[in-house]
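Quick note —
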Amino acid sequence: MKNKHTDPLSGKDLDNLLNESFLNLDFKDPQNTQLMESIAHYTMAATPATPSAKSKTLFTKLLLSLLTLGIIGIAAFLLTKKNPVPAVNTAPVSLVKPVVSDTVEPSETGSRSTLATQKATGSNPALEKTNPLEYPMPYAAEKETPEQPEEVEAVAKPISIADKRIGNNDYVFPVLTEKEMKTNEKEKRRMGKMAARLGRERYALIPRKTWYMQTTEVSNLEYRTFLFDLLIQGKKDDFLKAKPDQSLWKNSNGTNKFDNFEKPYFTDKRFKDYPVVNITAEGAAMYCRWLTDLADATLKKDGNTSARFEFLIPMESEWLYAAQNGKPDAIFPWPLDSIQNHFNCLLGNFCIQKLKDQIKQPFGYKNTININAFTSAGMATNTDTMATADVTSYNPNDYNLYCMSGNVSELVYTDGTNVIKTKGGNWASDFQHLKLNSEDEFKAPIKASPMIGFRVEAKPKH
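Predicted structure written out below.
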């Protein structure tokens, strides 16, 4: 018969219980380390028990263990209250998306990195490397794929397409090397395959509709591929019509803060995934026709006889439907009716110098809001000279469309007409103009601007 005084738990079991009570604390936190050392000293420093006092000692260790668990639980709760950790997956709008969908195909998407993870060289503070996880900002951190060596070499020395005139002579066109032409052809083939099959990482099917919307604004790399292809084909007149006017960066928005973007912005590889700007509506329409022809040629080459799609600048109602996730009462592309989520994180790229008294400081930022930053992207990266952001910055809406509010205003056609206007607001807008139904900030006729870009839609050909 078992002795009624026999303890059901061995000393080893109690030691394990005591040890496991520490597992849920962060050993890297100096406050937790000090707490654990104090408790361990208190509980472990007792005089070794004698065999005659075994039951009493085990009972005492059990009480101490329970006391330890209670103290640690209270301490962990107090520390959490002092340093709250944002919940990534439970917030209405996710703060950080650290993992890219497995459906992304590196061989077709190439190398794409967000503003928050780019490596920088040179003195431009807009290009300084920042760890996106240091801030509770809603950047969509993407998984990087290796840079293509040809592309890096081809754009290591940016090709200027600014107006280069000698006296009264005509425009001097840039001359591409053989390596640069091969690199451009490679990117053109990639874009053709993506457009031909309407890959979902680049084109989102709009539910209950028969058309697609590009998930991002058209990037510098995409537009440059089109522009250099015109040059390679000898279409110099089209090249002159379509090329961006980078001189518009000078004194843009009434400040010289962004003058240094004039030379590198369009051709430097560090900006390849930023939205193309400073182009006319005519240039955007030419890009759409070029992309349509490219998709058709790719399908024909592959012997594919499936339905053809036409790439277009969206109609205003179509753009709005996609931005609102099909919900006509939506104010922003995200589910909230505010420019900030419940952690006060800013959900788009806009000018924080305008209406800044109505912007609340985000929780968890190491420092106060950078009062010198012009944009919310600049505030998040602590950079004064930040204008546009990577086209995959911030989280997409339910249709997987990025930056439908903010970053750059996007060209659209007014319904039933060929009149161009813009939607969505931009990096120089106040947050009120990021509302999807806000009044257009630009007067007709719309001209090229550092604040204006575009995205394309794909509709079946009639």
